[in-house]
Specification:
heterodimer, A: about 250 residues, alpha/beta, BirA Bifunctional Protein, domain 2, 9-stranded mixed sheet, 3-stranded mixed sheet, 10 helices, 12 strands, about 40% helix, B: about 140 residues, alpha+beta, OB fold (Dihydrolipoamide Acetyltransferase, E2P), 6-stranded antiparallel sheet, 3-stranded antiparallel sheet, 5 helices, Probable glycine cleavage system H protein (chain B), GCV_H (chain B), Single_hybrid_motif (chain B), lipoyl (chain B), GCV_H_sub (chain B)
C-alpha cells in the first residue's frame, strides 16, 4: 500500500497545527490520503495539550523573553518545548480503520516507525507504553494522538539536540524541583540523538532514516507528494484559530 | 478483558461508536459505554457540548456535526459522537470536576448530556439494543 510522504516543512506553530488539523479533517472526509510528514518549528515553541491550563504550564514571561511561541494542540498529553534547532517533529494521519482500535496498540505500531528509524541511525531504541520511545530507559521521543471524525492524527517529537535548560525556563516546574540535581536527573531520564551518537546528524539524515523506519513499521511505501490546494486552503483557514487568544486561553 | 466482561445494560440503545442512549420522557440521556471507557483508559478531561447546540446522529462518513464533545484519557483525545439528532438540553457539569466518573460509573453518574431528539422513532431503529450490542462487542474480539 502507498501512503503519501510530504516534504520537510519549517512553519510557525500555528501553521503546523493548522496543517495537521486540515489533514485530519480532509482524511476523515476521504479527500486526503493517509499521510506522513516531518517538519520543524520556527520559531521554537511550547505546545500545550488540548485541555491543559496555560497559566499552570507555561512561564509566559519567559516565553516572551525568548521569542518562543505558545500553541494549544488538538491532541492530548502534556506541555512540550519544541526547539527549532533541536527537534524533528513527525505527524501521521490515517483512517481509524487503518490502525488497531486499541489506542496503545496503535501507538506501538506508529512509534515503531521511530524505533526502526533510530535503528537506521545506529541507536537501539524501544517502544515504552503508553506513547514514548526510549533508549536504555531514557526518553528520546514522545507522541500524542487524537481520533476524530473517523480519522486518527498522531504527532510527536524526535529529539536531536534540544536546549534542555531553556525548556526548564519555559515550562513551569515547581520551584523546589528546579535545582541542578533535578535538572541532572532529567538529563538521566531524557536523551537525544546527538548524545547517543556522539555527533549531530543533519535534519535530512534523521528524516531519511525515519522514512525508512516508518515504511518498515507501517508496512507501506511512502511516496513523495505535496500538500494539495484544498489542504493548504483549509490550513490557512484554521491557522487564525491556533494563533488566537481564545483558543490559547481556552483553559 | 473478553467482550462478555463489559457491562451492557438492558433497556439502553447503543451506537457502533460505543455511545449509549436512554429514552426518558421527551428527551434522551447519552453517555459512553463500559467498553468505551475501558478502551480509553483513565479519563482526565471531558469537553462537554454547549447547551442549545444542534447535533446530528452518527452515520458514515462521520463529520463534526455529529460530535457531542471529546474525552481525553491518558492515551488520547477521542470524539464522543451523538447517537441521536437533536438539541443539547443539559450537560453533566460534574464531569468538569470529576472526569474519572466516566470510568467508575459510565452508565449512571458518568452520563454526558441530555438531548431533545428530532425524530426519535425513526433514528432509534438504527441503534442496537443490549442484545445486539453484546453480539457486536463479541465480534470486535
Amino acid at each position: 500500500m502507498n501512503w503519501r510522504l510530504l516534504p520537510l516543512r519549517v512553519d510557525d506553530a500555528f501553521m503546523s497545527m493548522a496543517i495537521d488539523e486540515a489533514l485530519l479533517i480532509l482524511n476523515a472526509e476521504k479527500k486526503s490520503p493517509n499521510t506522513v510528514r516531518f517538519w520543524r518549528w520556527l520559531p521554537s515553541a511550547v505546545s500545550l495539550g488540548c485541555f491543559q491550563s496555560l497559566e499552570r504550564e507555561v512561564d509566559l514571561e519567559a516565553a516572551r523573553r525568548h521569542g518562543v511561541d505558545i500553541v494549544r494542540r488538538i491532541t492530548g498529553g502534556g506541555a512540550v518545548f519544541h526547539d527549532h534547532q533541536g527537534e524533528l517533529t513527525y505527524s501521521l494521519v490515517c483512517g481509524e480503520e487503518d490502525m488497531p482500535r486499541d489506542i496503545v496498540e496503535s501507538y506501538k505500531i506508529i512509534c515503531d516507525g521511530i524505533v526502526q528509524g533510530l535503528k537506521q541511525l545506529g541507536i537501539p531504541a524501544e517502544f515504552r507504553p503508553i506513547n514514548d520511545v526510549q533508549v536504555n530507559g531514557k526518553k528520546i521521543s514522545g507522541s500524542a494522538q487524537t481520533r476524530r471524525w473517523g480519522s486518527l492524527l498522531q504527532h510527536g517529537t524526535i529529539l536531536i539536540s534540544p536546549d534542555v535548560r531553556l525548556m526548564f525556563e519555559l515550562l513551569k516546574v515547581s520551584p523546589e524541583k528546579i535545582s541542578d540535581k533535578f535538572i541532572s536527573s532529567v538529563f538521566e531520564r531524557v536523551t537525544t540523538i546527538e548524545r547517543e551518537l556522539g555527533r549531530r546528524p543533519s535534519f535530512e539524515q534523521v528524516r531519511e532514516a525515519m522514512i525508512k523506519g516508518f515504511e518498515r513499521a507501517l508496512n507501506v511505501d511512502l511516496v513523495e507528494g505535496e500538500l494539495t490546494r484544498a489542504e493548504l486552503d483549509l490550513a490557512a483557514k484554521l491557522r487564525p484559530k491556533y494563533a488566537s487568544k481564545e483558543w490559547l486561553r481556552k483553559r | 478483558m473478553g467482550a462478555s466482561e463489559y457491562e451492557v445494560r438492558e433497556g439502553l440503545f447503543y451506537s457502533k461508536e460505543h455511545e449509549w442512549l436512554k429514552v426518558e420522557k421527551g428527551q434522551v440521556r447519552v453517555g459512553i459505554t463500559d467498553y468505551a471507557q475501558d478502551k480509553l483508559g483513565d479519563v482526565v478531561y471531558v469537553e462537554l457540548p454547549v447547551v442549545g447546540r444542534k447535533v446530528k446522529q452518527i452515520g458514515e462518513p462521520k463529520n463534526r456535526d455529529m460530535e457531542l464533545g471529546a474525552v481525553e484519557s491518558v492515551k488520547a483525545v477521542s470524539t464522543v459522537y451523538s447517537p441521536i439528532s437533536g438539541t443539547v438540553k443539559e450537560v453533566n457539569s460534574t464531569l468538569q470536576e470529576r472526569p474519572e466518573i466516566i470510568n467508575t460509573s459510565p452508565y449512571d453518574e458518568g452520563w454526558i448530556c441530555v438531548v431533545v431528539p428530532e425524530d426519535l422513532d425513526k433514528e432509534i431503529k438504527t441503534l442496537m439494543d443490549a442484545k445486539a450490542y453484546s453480539e457486536y462487542l463479541k465480534n470486535l474480539g
